[in-house]
Amino acid sequence: MINPYFEEEHRLLRDQVRKFVEKEIVPHGEAWEEQGYVPRELLLKMGELGFLGLTHEEKYGGSQLDVRAAAVLAEELGRSSFAGVTITTLVHTNMASPHLALAGSDEQKQQYLPDIIAGKKITAVCVTEPAAGSDVAGIKARAVRDGDDWVINGSKMFITNGVHGDIFFVAAKTDPDAKGSRGISMFIVEKGTPGFEIGRSLKKHGWRSSDTAELFFDNVRVPAKNLLGEENKGFYAVMKNFQHERIMLSAMGVGEAQKALDMTIENVKQRQAFGGALFDKDVVRDKLARAQTKVSLAQNYTYYVAWLDAQGADCIKEVSMLKAYACDIANEVMYDCLQLHGGMGFMSESPIERMYRDARVLTIGGGATEVMYGEVAKRL
């Protein structure tokens, strides 16, 4: 089907990622769920194929494409059915490293971006705290200037790639007297910096092949050159990057929902009940048709919003509506798909059971649904 929002390069990328998923992720995903993280070897392979630098500048090894390419990557990884692998990748490509790409100096980008794009160094973004998630302005972590250094103290929670990451982009208050949103700065902190500790690897309801950590900063001293962007302007950098993060999560959810629906259609065509294939029952066909309609609407709105962003439009309202709607739809469709799998859908050996768990966090991470509709309401 002709899609007006994409070009030939996006179609080729989609085909390439889909083949990669089937060959390199699907056969090994269960093992990675058990071990709790994605092996570096996979990320290095993705780096070699250019998947980790789609939106980064060519001079650092990237492809310098717009968010539409990243949305294709997110959707196709979502179709793998292993959301932990998907989020490990997307945090690195479109949620953490863009802080460096957008706000970093030429020196900072030259130092870090080539290895980030190659998959040799994996990134994480450290904003969320035990008492501050969607409320970024409420963070308590503190950074104080001391001569040629900044000294960071505080903690971070629910940090994806926190256990196995190498480079961390950390939000901390640098002006405690300023209004919350005006007194935050971003810093580059490398693994192994004295005082920077991984508290624990967190066990989760879903995304189990993604490592998630609680992090502690105890008098962590970083050189002044590790300030990322302007002092006290970190809040705005986080908010700006949230736009792409929310598009990525929406595309990821759409990919997951479509894959679950495809699996369910195949399942009910094979299952025999009440004297025939379950697919032949009107109530089942109706449920599937309604689910496909919802997914297709969410998918096409994802494409539109990605295209809108690529045109340079101010689309905070549209991105917020997309994030809320697409992620809600992913959860609704997962519910219906598990229901149609019957008892087997409730078994941990069933892929749909894992996908149902994984989808739940989509309405929480990157801005909860309630927060997204709040952003929409501000702009009505």
What does this structure look like?
This protein is of the alpha+beta class. It folds into 3 domains: 115 residues, Orthogonal Bundle (Butyryl-Coa Dehydrogenase, subunit A, domain 1), CATH 1.10.540; 108 residues, Butyryl-CoA Dehydrogenase, subunit A, domain 2 (Beta Barrel), CATH 2.40.110; 143 residues, Butyryl-CoA Dehydrogenase, subunit A, domain 3. It contains 11 helices and 10 strands. Strands 1-4-5-8 form a 4-stranded mixed beta sheet, with helices on one face. Strand 9 and strand 10 form a beta hairpin. The radius of gyration is 21 Å and the shape is globular. The mean pLDDT is 95.
Radius of gyration from the alpha-carbon trace, in angstroms = 21 Å
Terminal CA distance reads: 34 Å
Total helical elements:
11
Shape: globular
Q: What would CATH call the architecture of the largest domain? A: Up-down Bundle
Mean pLDDT: 95
Report the CATH superfamily of the largest domain. Answer: Butyryl-CoA Dehydrogenase, subunit A, domain 3
Strand order of the largest sheet: 1-4-5-8
Name the beta content range.
Answer: 15-25%
- List low-pLDDT spans: none
Main sheet characteristics = 4 strands, mixed
Q: Classify the secondary structure makeup into a structural class.
A: alpha+beta
The domain count comes to: 3
Quick one: CATH class of the largest domain?
Mainly Alpha
Helix content: 40-55%
CATH topology of the largest domain: Butyryl-CoA Dehydrogenase, subunit A, domain 3
Number of E-state strands: 10
